[in-house]
Specification:
heterodimer; A: OB fold (Dihydrolipoamide Acetyltransferase, E2P); Chloramphenicol Acetyltransferase; 3 domains; six-stranded mixed β-sheet; five-stranded antiparallel β-sheet; 19 strands; B: 466 residues; alpha/beta; FAD/NAD(P)-binding domain; Enolase-like, domain 1; 24 strands; 31% helix
Chain lengths: 456, 466
């Protein structure tokens, strides 16, 4: 029995890549974890490791071939070994095409009728997730578990607008009678905002990948939306990763939000002064840069909030590696500003700008968006007052930043006007308890309210 | 604390609010200074419909030959018509009394005044029977309604003899030979229609360039023509400069397009709008915000004064009974901590003239002003089978859709019984229907409502019977 080694998707958005170099040749014996090839994408060059043991029967794609489509068989492995063709957990979802179109080669080990989900190569950085439960190998059991299949109640107009905006109604909460989704709900859910604010594509998956989104069992037709009444946009890798990671996180992480209002007039004044000072260097510090800085310093002051839950114990991170949610045209990504607590404002501003720009042009290296110990999502530019993001696993908390706006506040018993920003910290209760989250938020508030303290 | 809720005013806003409150388990009282049911039941919606029915039937008598029928010497008993109207009002008035009793709502007869109190203002009622009674509640809802606007400076002030408001127009001693109606909104047009049906020489003066100015322009135009056919006269774009009382009648000076004109008539009806009933209740002292005779409220009827709410006409336009009831139910559900009935449903408007006029949502012009790219459909009753069989050929149905989303955003009808049909479009809009659902709905044949279907098809070039 032989196994096809497929062209892996090194990032959720990758559709094709260049097979830069083979590290093995025909007849070589490989075992799981051996580097067999190097693949180049527009983002990075990555090593491809074998998942299965066996002997290379044939290299199907020569070195240097460009535009090799993801999931094209690139080599054939004789599976004399135990041929555990179950892919590492993270890969099942990251090789999206595998489940959409059967591999060209009939040599797959999938039992008849079983869905061929195998992507028997692994990106080294995600091999850690490989202990996941076998996916797609239980005789068809890989299909998502049955959902309740309940009908989505939405007004005709809401359905029409959702269709026009490309909104998934399952992601919209209805405010009409009996939770019916009405026009106002889909209008409020801008496509970019309706999606979970943060995802970290390609990061090591904490949960087994067998937990594919379970809600897709029922076809739209079964749910009363006839074929032909909509245009279907295929799920790309990023969308699938977002869907999977957010579903897992929201379902499996016991999360809760903490919200605070912060006056930012001082912060805005400080920003103006800083920007004046930095003008000769051509650096412009944004409010978000100051938020990143304050968050990093606050994580240093309250290290318990800079932590990750794992079954082995609580990981107390040494650095504040801050993931910043960046909206892309068709998704989002969270590049990471490493060790932000050690960096000055100018450097943070420069790095954040560079990361965001390269995120938008898809030029990030995987290590630049994998990992991270804390996330910040800012929807202030959309005028959002307050929101609660979904935990970006395995991080212990994520900060949601609303718009700074003039509001009436009471000072010394008098009404006054102040620029106020509402922030919400979503905490993973397994590691960040309410008291810890509150302490962190208050530390953050103190820093933002009096920006001078950030440099002390 | 005597009650959970005190409602002041028992019109369709107040009494419906009180019933809903009682259903929600609130111990409720309602204060009424005049008659249960308010203007709607006693001096508005209902008695005018009774008069108009008499007028309509009488007018039909003139067309009996069209139906192959014959009647000789048709005439009317004016007193009988008015008496019937009063009887209808009385029937409904006692109906409200029954409903109050059934729902264990205490009716306090007298004029209410508010005084500072907590958690809601105290209500001091100058009792009809004499004396005064102070009652307290957790919440107080003002549903005091509105009344006809008058302009004494130019003589537009009722005297009960020659100058009337709707109130006097409902209980005339005799049918005047000639009449001038000032204002061509629903109230003015309905009285003009009624008195014209009974043979009065009626002229309607409208300051704006067209009659029924809140309706869609095409409807205004069609109505103008239909009314003129019945002998109504109009002066549009005409402003009344002065009304002078003569020995027997009135003389009205008006100005239109720079030209002056004087019209004489036996009676004038003043129907130039509505003012809220906000006086003599101590509202100013409580700090209730009043703008243009109407109480300013938030989305749930709250006035800003703790525990004090306002709904219906007194809280602003549109001045319609069904809007008042709807607001009242919302307000009391909000007070009771329930998820309230939403307030975003479109509010239909009806004019019970012959032909009738009914509309809901935006006019074509309003939609265009909002920058909406519209798709408009029309269907005339003259090609509708049921309309032809019934001899009700006048009028049409017009639909306005948002061209981008297909949402029905407005519907406008003129013709027979359209006031009974407009709810179909109101329901469609409340359910956020698009053209697809309206087109997919099966309308029974033969009915005049088929014109609604056809107008929905027409907007998308699919009309069948034209």
């Amino acid at each position: 029995m032989s196994i096809d080694v497929l062209m892996p998707a090194l990032s959720p958005t990758m559709e094709e890549g260049t097979l830069a170099k083979w590290h093995v040749k025909k007849g070589d014996t490989v075992k799981s974890g051996d580097v067999i090839a190097e693949i180049e994408t527009d983002k990075a060059t990555m090593e491809v490791e074998a998942v299965d043991e066996g002997v290379i029967e044939e290299l199907l794609v020569p070195e240097g071939t460009e535009e090799v489509k993801v999931n094209t068989p690139i080599a054939r492995l004789s599976g004399e070994g135990e041929a555990s063709s179950a892919p590492p957990a993270a890969k099942a979802a990251e090789a999206p095409k595998a489940s959409q179109s059967p591999p060209q080669s009939p040599a797959a080990t999938a039992p008849p009728g079983g869905e061929h989900l195998a992507a028997p190569v692994a990106v080294s950085s995600s091999a850690a997730g490989g202990s996941g439960a076998p996916a797609g190998r239980d005789g068809g059991g890989s299909s998502p578990q049955a959902s309740d299949g309940s009908r989505i109640f939405a007004s005709p107009l809401a359905r029409r607008i959702a269709e026009q905006k490309g909104l998934d109604l399952t992601s919209v909460t209805g405010s009409g009678p009996h939770g019916r989704i009405i026009k106002a709900d889909v209008e409020a859910a801008k496509p970019g905002q309706a999606r979970p604010p943060v995802a970290q594509p390609g990061a090591p998956a904490a949960a087994p990948a067998s937990a594919a989104p379970p809600r897709q069992v029922q076809s739209l037709a079964q749910m009363g939306i006839p074929d032909g009444s909509y245009d279907l946009i295929p799920l790309d890798g990023m969308r699938k990763t977002v869907a999977r990671r957010m579903t897992e996180s929201f379902r499996d992480v016991p999360h809760f939000p903490l919200t605070l209002d912060i006056e930012i007039d001082e912060l805005l004044a400080a920003r103006a002064r800083v920007n004046k000072l930095l003008e000769p260097q051509g650096v412009k510090v944004s409010v978000n840069d100051l938020v990143i800085k304050a968050a990093a310093v606050a994580l240093k002051q309250v290290p318990e909030a800079n932590a990750s839950y794992s079954p082995e114990g609580i990981a107390m991170h040494h650095h504040a590696d801050i993931a910043i949610a960046v909206a892309l045209e068709h998704g989002l990504i969270t590049p990471i500003l490493r060790a932000a607590e050690t960096k000055g404002l100018a450097q943070i501003a420069r790095e954040a700008k560079d990361l965001a720009e390269r995120a938008r042009s898809k030029k990030l290296k995987p290590e630049e968006f994998q990992g991270g110990t804390f996330s910040i999502s800012n929807l202030g530019m959309f005028g959002i007052k307050s929101f609660a993001s979904i935990i970006n696993e395995p991080q212990g908390a994520i900060l949601s930043v609303g718009a700074g706006e003039q509001r009436a506040v009471v000072k010394n018993g008098q009404l006054a006007v102040a620029t106020v920003m509402t922030v919400t910290l979503t905490c993973d209760h397994r590691v960040v308890d309410g008291a810890i989250g509150s302490r962190w938020l208050n530390a953050f508030k103190a820093l933002v309210s009096d920006p001078l303290t950030m440099i002390v | 604390m005597d009650f959970d809720l005190i409602v002041i005013g028992s019109g369709p806003g107040g009494y419906v609010t009180a019933i809903r409150a009682s259903q929600l388990g609130l111990k409720t009282a309602i204060v009424e200074r005049e008659l249960l049911g308010g203007v709607c039941l006693n001096w508005g919606c209902i008695p005018t419909k009774a008069l108009l029915k008499s007028g309509e039937v009488y007018e039909q008598l003139g067309h009996l030959a069209d139906y192959g029928l014959k009647v000789e010497k048709a005439s009317f008993d004016f007193d009988g018509i008015v008496k019937r109207s009063r009887k209808v009002a009385t029937t409904l008035n006692s109906g409200v009394a029954f409903l109050m009793k059934k729902h264990k709502i205490e009716v306090i007869e007298g004029a209410a005044k508010l005084e500072k109190g907590s958690p809601a203002p105290k209500v001091v009622v100058a009792l009809k029977a004499g004396g005064s009674r102070t009652v307290t509640a957790k919440s107080v809802i003002l549903a005091t309604g509105a009344r006809a606007r008058t302009i004494p400076a130019i003589g537009l002030e009722p005297d009960g003899e020659r100058v009337w408001t709707y109130r006097e127009a409902l209980v005339p001693k005799a049918c005047p030979k000639s009449m001038i109606v000032i204002g061509s909104g629903a109230i003015g047009i309905e009285f003009a229609s009624f008195y014209r049906a009974l043979g009065a020489d009626v002229t309607v003066i409208e300051a704006l360039p067209r009659i029924l100015p809140v309706e869609d322009e095409e409807v205004s135009k069609a109505a103008h023509k239909a009314f003129e056919k019945r002998g109504l006269k109009f002066r549009v774009g005409a402003s009344v400069k002065k009304l002078t009382r003569l020995k027997a009648g009135v003389s009205i000076e008006l100005e239109a397009a720079g030209k002056s004109e004087t019209l004489d008539a036996e009676v004038a009806i003043v129907a130039v709008g509505i003012v809220g009933n906000v006086e003599d209740m101590g509202l100013e002292a409580l700090g209730v915000k009043i703008e243009k005779t109407h109480i300013v409220t938030d989305g749930h009827g709250a006035t800003g004064v703790p525990g004090l709410y306002a709904i219906g006409d007194v809280a602003g336009p549109p001045w319609l009974a069904h809007k008042a009831s709807h607001e009242g139910v919302h307000c009391v559900e909000h007070i009771a901590g329930q998820a309230p009935t939403n307030l975003t449903s479109p509010i239909p408007g009806c004019t019970y003239s012959t032909p009738q006029i009914a509309s809901v949502g935006l006019t074509e012009a309003q939609a265009k002003e909002q920058g909406i790219e519209v798709k408009v459909g029309r269907f005339p009753f003259r090609v509708n089978g049921k309309a032809i069989a019934s001899g009700e050929l006048e009028g049409f149905v017009k639909t306005v859709f948002d061209g981008k989303t297909g949402a029905l955003i407005g519907a406008h009808m003129i013709g027979g019984e359209v006031t009974e049909m407009i709810q179909g479009f109101a329901l469609a809009m409340t359910l956020e229907a698009t053209e697809a659902e309206l087109q997919a709905t099966v309308f029974p044949h033969p009915t005049m409502s088929e014109a609604m279907h056809e107008a929905s098809l027409d907007a998308y070039g699919k009309v069948l019977h034209v």
